[in-house]
């Protein structure tokens, strides 16, 4: 299954069409509003803004599976992200990224290993997956890898379509 075929809703509950990302490089990140890593929203937004014109997007996927650090309603999440960090990149509905109710998007993403060989379950909020134009998941980054880390930026630059 291509990640573009996975049904998922936007944060506002309306259906999202992941096909709109076909032909783009996309960084898919499970996000949370009450985590020590939450300030990464700032770097993710900066990366999104800087590279959007070159065929890049960040896709934030709220998840409340890690110590309940994303407890808010969709409206609260949207307000927090835009007010606190100026987030303009799209956010999906809140989903499970691990366990029996793991969202199908994460069934696909978690097959890929990071540079240390970790595949499978998401370890914490802000784990990042780089999807190349065409839908191949080409890299996975641990939650502590900052959005402006050289290895992440270099990986994104390699797969930008424009």
Q: Given this structure, which CATH class is correct?
A: Alpha Beta
What is the general shape?
globular
Helix content: 10-25%
Give the CATH topology: Glutaredoxin
**What is the total number of structural domains?**
1
Gyration radius over CA: 14 Å
- In round numbers, the mean pLDDT is 96
Ends: how far apart?
A: 26 Å
Key features of this structure:
single chain, 162 residues, alpha+beta, Glutaredoxin, two-stranded antiparallel ribbon, globular
What does this structure look like?
This protein has 162 residues and is of the alpha+beta class. The protein has a single domain (3-159), classed as 3-Layer(aba) Sandwich (Glutaredoxin). It has four helices and six strands, in the order E-E-E-H-E-H-H-E-E-H. The chain has a four-stranded mixed sheet with strand order 4-3-5-6, covered by helices on one side. A two-stranded antiparallel sheet has the order 1-2. Strand 3, helix 1 and strand 4 form a beta-alpha-beta unit. The radius of gyration is 14 Å and the shape is globular. It starts with 7 loop residues before the first strand and ends with a helix.
Task: Describe, in short, the structure shown.
The protein has 162 residues and is of the alpha+beta class. The protein is built from 4 helices and 6 strands, in the order E-E-E-H-E-H-H-E-E-H.
Helix and strand topology:
Layout: E1 8-9, E2 15-16, E3 25-31, H1 40-51, E4 56-62, H2 74-85, H3 104-109, E5 128-131, E6 137-141, H4 150-159
């Amino acid at each position: 299954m291509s990640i573009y075929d996975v049904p998922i809703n936007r944060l506002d509950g309306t259906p999202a069409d992941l096909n709109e990302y076909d032909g783009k490089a996309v960084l898919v990140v499970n996000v949370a509003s009450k985590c020590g890593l939450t300030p990464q929203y700032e770097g993710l937004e900066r990366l999104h803004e800087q590279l959007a014109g070159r065929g890049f997007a960040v896709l934030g996927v709220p998840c409340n599976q890690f110590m309940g650090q994303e407890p808010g309603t969709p409206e609260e999440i949207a307000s927090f992200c835009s007010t606190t960090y100026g987030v303009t990149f799209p956010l999906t509905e809140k989903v499970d990224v691990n366990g029996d109710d793991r969202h199908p998007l994460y069934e696909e993403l978690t097959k890929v290993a990071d540079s240390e060989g970790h595949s499978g379950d998401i370890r914490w909020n802000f784990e990042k997956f780089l999807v190349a134009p065409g839908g191949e998941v080409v890299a996975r980054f641990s939650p502590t890898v900052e959005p402006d880390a050289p290895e992440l930026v270099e990986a994104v630059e390699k797969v930008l379509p424009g």
